[in-house]
Amino acid sequence: MYVARRSERTLGDLAAQFPVVVITGPRQSGKTTLVRQFFPNYSYVSLEDPDNREFAEQDPRGFLDRFEHGVILDEVQRVPDLVSYLQGIVDERGDPGQFILSGSQQFGLMEQVTQSLAGRAAVLDLLPFSLDELQADGLVPQDLDRLLFTGLYPPIYDRGIDPPTFYANYVRNYIERDVRQMVNVRDLTTFQRFLRLCAGRNGQMLNLSQLGSDAGITHNTAKAWLSVLEASYIVHLVPAHHRNFNKRVIKTPKLHFIDPGLCSWLLGIEKADQISTHPLRGPLFESYIASELLKRRYDGGKQSNLHYWRGRGGLEVDLVIERPEGLDPVEVKAGATIAGDWFGSLRRWMELAGESAGRPFLIYGGDQMLERSGVRVLPWHQASLVLGPGEAHLPAPLG
To answer: How many CB atoms lie within 10 A of CB 72?
Structure first.
């Protein structure tokens, strides 16, 4: 079963303009499925295969010369030096869409792309399924708590894998292995504790010193390990917006897990019905919404435009979307019943922002869509409307 991805149109556009397109994102996010579906006539080579990897490492020119009419090189971060040999080939041939590179880590790979293929390569980030993509195929979990528990990784939907089973193996087979490849982790038990502590701080402002202390590691080690989680697309740091409306703002980033199902598993949640009473249900929901908006940006080949805002007096807006026409504040509430006090932060922020303010939104865990006090209120399953009705539907499949 193939679930159409929003990024298909962007992928086609990039391949028509650049000789090299790099698809990056977390492991098991559907990168290989996407590129093989989109480029069915291309040769496909996985560099996870030891024989392919040895060939590419020992004779990179001979390895690349075999492919004259388009090739997908999967998990290319396993042989990052291979990228430096592409420059001469793409310059000589001059055709767009010659090489499709897929990789699961930003470290190493993106450094090589930047150094060797400047002006010749485009990058597309692919995260796990968005809710819109699941809706188009009728695969949406039955309620919000089930969604937060299940998460949005494709194998859970493609192969019907039980979420706890998937995430246990995902952490063991991918996250821990990647960490060992990228940094020197001598004590895996300590890293596991660090990972679970990060889950416990999901949706909160990052305090690296406290996080490291609780995990029993130094500040610098905590910083390095968190960088690995970012590079592997496990977490995303949402920066504080620095516009000093009242010159008293917090500048610490917020820590968000990209997938709520993975975060739920790390928190020890074993069943979907445990979500409703869990003390971190609110942060789980907030991170899910941040991830959905981040996916929409990435699917269009764009970088994140998400921030949050917090004044030193405690006033906070969960998300601020930076657009050319203004700053759209978004408040996120997991409750299913709208409460009047949910709107206070948005009103105060709009006053402080003045002419910089865009349209305010509130996304909540209920089912109604309405307008209240100048704020557009959206249910959890229609959060994508924050980005406008013109972006609310899947693009037509490309032939």
So the answer is: 23
Assess whether 167 and 287 both reside in one domain. Answer: yes
Tens digit of each residue's pLDDT (9 = 90 or more) over 276-293: 999 999 999 999 999 999
Inside any domain, residue 1: no
Within 8 A by CB and 6+ apart from 279, the residues are none
220's CB contacts (< 8 A; 6+ apart) are none
| Residues 224 and 97 both lie in one domain | no
Predicted pLDDT of residue 183: 74
Comparison of pLDDT for 110 and 168, the residue scoring more: 168
The pLDDT score that the predictor gives to residue 235 is 97
Of the two residues 250 and 140, the one the predictor is more confident about is 140
Q: What is the CA radius of gyration of the chain?
A: 22
Query: How many distinct structural domains can be found in the chain?
Result: 2
Q: Which of 394, 387, 399, 309 is nearest to 135 (CA)?
A: 394
Per-residue model confidence as pLDDT tens digits over 301-349: 999 999 999 887 778 999 999 988 889 999 999 999 999 999 999 999 9
Q: 3 in a domain, yes or no?
A: no
241-262 pLDDT, tens digit per residue, is: 876 666 566 789 999 999 999 9
Q: Among 23-37, 79-93, 259-273, which stretch is predicted with the lowest mean pLDDT?
A: 79-93
Residues 150 and 220 both lie in one domain:
yes
Helical axes 219-231 vs 188-200, angle rounded to 10°: 80
Report angle CA 207, 209, 215 to the nearest 5 degrees. Answer: 100
What residues make up the domain containing 399?
A: 130-399
CA distance 330 to 180: 38
**Which of residues 74, 90, 125 is at a domain's end?**
125
| Mean pLDDT, residues 92-121 taken together | 84
Within this chain, do residues 101 and 37 fall inside the same structural domain, yes or no?
A: yes
C-alpha 131: how far from chain center: 13
Rounded CA-CA distance 263/139 in Å is 21
